[in-house]
Design goal:
Elements: E1 12-14, H1 20-26, E2 34-42, H2 60-72, E3 75-79, H3 80-86, E4 95-98, E5 116-120, H4 127-134, E6 139-141, H5 149-158, E7 163-166, H6 170-179, E8 184-190, E9 207-219, E10 222-234
Parallel strand pairs: 1-9, 2-7, 2-8, 3-4, 3-7, 4-5, 5-6
Antiparallel strand pairs: 8-10, 9-10
């Protein structure tokens, strides 16, 4: 399942028709290192339900692709706020916590050494505590006051983690786009409308990013797309 070339029609495929191996192959990166970002939203753009969590809007189709992407990933990259809100457990692959404050979420504090990394800055008040909890080698100091996301992607690749999966949150996604390091957006649109003022999948930094659709799956009205970054420029 190679992505369509420019000018070719993208055909809708049924998720249920794909075996697990075929689904995994459909998300093969075009090169290394490769940073993909995975989000779910409603049709009207809400990235969370009324409780502020993404788990209240996802469904079985989204969960299947979510699991497939996690199985492919060499590491996860997630903002500390999202980790706290969603109460992440320790995943099977290394988890990189992105936090300028170097604050380790409570659910991750008992993780085995080496499973959790912290990406932070030299000016962080929590730097010493993070090093004590995680070990010096697992604390990545990537800038004085702002995290250098280009350096983060390069450092993870240097460790052999060339297929990198980011699961948010929205402000980290916007920052990654602004830094020019995102290769792909995996976006699930569930057939629901929620209204209100829920956050979008990217918030904060203003960006202008061109995307090329490479895969479109459907199951019971849920659309699951793979969008490749073509060109971008910060707004």
């Amino acid at each position: 399942m190679t992505p369509p070339a420019d000018g070719q029609r993208l055909e809708l495929q049924h998720l249920a028709d794909l075996s697990d191996d075929e689904l995994a192959a459909a998300y093969t990166p075009e090169r290394e290192p490769w940073l993909r970002v995975n989000f779910v939203s409603t049709v009207d753009g809400a990235a969370t339900g009324s409780d502020g969590l993404s788990g209240t809007i996802n469904n079985a189709a989204d969960k299947r692709v979510f699991d497939a992407l996690r199985r492919r990933a060499h590491c996860l990259v997630v903002g500390a706020g999202t980790l706290r809100a969603e109460e992440y457990d320790v995943p099977r692959v290394p988890l990189v916590v992105v936090s300028r404050s170097a604050d380790l979420p409570p659910t991750l504090r008992d993780a085995p050494r080496g499973r959790i990394l912290m990406a932070t800055v030299a000016s962080s008040d929590g730097l010493a505590a993070a090093r004590e909890a995680l070990g010096d080698d697992n604390v990545l100091v990537l800038g004085e006051d702002e995290i250098d996301l280009v350096a983060l992607k390069e450092e993870l690749a240097r460790r052999g983690w060339t297929e990198q999966l980011c699961e948010g949150g929205p402000s980290l996604f916007a920052d990654l786009l602004a830094a020019g390091v995102v290769d792909e957006l995996c976006w699930t649109v569930v057939p629901r409308l929620t209204g209100g003022d829920a956050v979008r999948i990217a918030t904060g930094a203003e960006v202008d990013v061109a995307l090329r659709p490479a895969l479109l799956l459907e199951q019971d009205g849920t659309l699951l797309g793979r969008w490749l970054v073509e060109a971008q420029g910060a707004g």
